[in-house]
Known about the structure:
Strand order of the largest sheet: 1-6
Protein name: HDIG domain-containing metalloprotein
Radius of gyration: 53 Å
Transmembrane segments: 26-48, 273-296, 308-333, 339-363, 370-390, 396-417, 429-450
Pfam families: 7TM-7TMR_HD (PF07698), 7TMR-HDED (PF07697), HD (PF01966)
Domain HD/PDEase: 479-637
Organism: Anoxynatronum sibiricum
Amino acid sequence: MTLIDGWKKRKKGTPAESGRLEMKRIAGYVLMCLLFFLVLFFTLLASLQPPKYDLRVGQAAPEEVLSPKLIVDQHRTQQLRSEAMSRVEPVYRLDQGIYPEVKRDIDSLFDLVFEVREMEEVTPEEIVAELQDNMLGITGYQLLVLAETPVERLQNLQNYLYEIIAQRMNQGIKVADLQWEKGQIREYVGTLTEFEENLRETAVTIINSTIRPNEFLNVEATENARQEAEESIEPVVIRRGEAILRQGDRVTADRLALMRELGLVEGEYQPNYLLYAGITLVVLLVMLLFVGYLWQFHPVLLHQLDKLLLIVLIITLISLMTRPIFILSPYLIPTAAGAMLLSLLVDPRLALMANTMITLLVGLSTGNNVLMIMMGLVGGTAGVLSMMNTQQRGNIFISGVIIGAANVVMVAVFRLVGMHESVRLWMDLIYAFLNGILCAVLTIGSLPFWEYTFSILTPLKLIELSNPSHPLLKRLLMEAPGTYHHSIVVGNLAESAVNAVGGDGLLVRTGAFYHDIGKLKRPFFFKENQYMMENPHDKLAPSLSALIITGHVKEGLEIAVKHRLPVKIRAFIEEHHGTTLAAYFFHKAKSASSEPEKIDEHMYRYNGPIPQSRETAILMLADSVEAAVRSMENPTRDRIEQMVQKIIQGKLDDGQLEDSQLTLTELKEVRKTFTRILAGILHERIQYPEMDLKELKGKSP
């Protein structure tokens, strides 16, 4: 339902009917938004949902398996971290308090030996007996060696022991290395040739009995070092488009787990709530931005459900075409076709905004391909700009060529800057150019469907309708030539006046051509077609004549419906007389009646409605003015202007212009335009004198 139809229904209906109509309209908006959301949601979901593979551990991958999104490879990351932790050396701490204890034990032994040996008249056997209780576990033989060795030699040995133990313990002795250290000390002491062998053996025994580990594992520091090593390993990331498995690779448990996490395993449904949420937000954002744009720049469209449905359908269809065409080549996706259609059917500025929406959706469906996004934006903009003021269908093909050229330039630019790496450059360029041709074909092919389904009059459709070869206009010319020429003059008058007030001149001119097609049923009952013939109304009652004359509106509508003329053209047929009075027959009826006051005026009025737009109102004025001025004798500019002013004032007084939205300033411009054109058409001509051509024959003029 168009805006005019909706206005009429609301105008004529009762408050209750208007309320129900408003509820239905709101329900229509809600249903349309819901369907639009669902279609876009599932379209994007089908594009972004990754393919699934029927694979098991040990099987060979039939093709390269790519990651649909960025993900952390937990198995590989943990493997690298474990390796890094295993490379960390344990951290030990040196206990500085152990060496003094060892030295104290040695001092205690030697102090006891020296103390016992200082006793008077003590034999070595008695010294050994006194030293039997020492805590170092030295054998009796070795004690005897200590008892018999001179004191100076023992002091010298004691100093050697200090040096050996200090050297070893300052380097640190681990528990695990204690026996190895003892072996090293034994080898070293064995090289001390200045001491006898039995004394060297005793020294080794003393060291083995006193030395102990002084380097212990620092558990906390070791764990900290391992943790630092683990944290130093960055997570292994598999980015979108990177291979999880190459073709022919064997599937391992960790690769299968990764595929399962990504939802790539067939038969294992895993709802991807993040993907659902992301798509939902994108679709809602697109819808909100578009509604906001309409609210700010095209508020009238928000009240036109048919236009909104048209926009939604075009955007939806382009989105649905994306995935199938992407399989063939992404460069063939006809993003600009939507912009071209909306530029012709609705508004070029709206088409630019819609093209941005379509491009974003297509870009998202194709994996955020920057080249696809730029081709959509540049190609769509070129399409809209080249389609402005298009009045020939052939120009659409030229626009397609322009779009193709813009696409080729974008591919070339991306190749030059290194952002397009393809071994099929020439094929990509060909596809990019064919994209524009495909957009033109889709636009030309589908345009009649949109025009007819939504009763939209594009400039192209108006040009076709105003072509004299149209069947109705040919009939009008042949069957009612006077009406045809009247319509041509009225069309020129109305078009000039509408252009003067900023209206749609092409629409009103086309409407003027068809406004009187109802006269085709009885063409000779109308004065302009009664050339050199008797007027049939002279033999009819005024009421019957009025019925015939006013009936041409209804009959015109029937013809228009039969020939499927657009609704906007029908409005000119229906409204070009409004509810005006057929004054001639009304006064004729009153004159012939003995009781003129009983003549019902409504029987002699047209059924209306009165004009609902500036275009139909100006056509009404042009129709009346042309007929009135044509009947004038000796028309001059002043007389024409007075007649035009009189007719316009009469329509105002009769209430015929109340719903037309015409202002007094605009009516003044209309009056000036009518006067200028009619004065030019009916200009005074020179009377040529009669001359005898026979007398002039052979003579110079």
